Amino acid sequence: NKKAFVELLFWKSPAAVCEMTKGYSSLQEGEGTTQIRVPPWTPQQEQELRELYWKYKEVEGGDIIAAILAHLPAPGRTRRQVVKQLVRM
Where are the domains of the chain? Predict the structure, then answer.
């Protein structure tokens, strides 16, 4: 590619450099990416989260999010995901 030098002017990730050197579309789907998709909240999970929030909201001196995470039936959710979902709701 005669215009590849223009791409060198911009910051690249290791995956982008690999694509440039081996040819575009050389990476398989999902390869070279570090981001993991967060599964969306289902309506049932949102309802459970809402109920847990109202249950532990009034507890004094306790960490509400830690209590919610301990009793959340869907494992694998992080503290940040729970806080973000609560703010969104």
Answer: 36-88
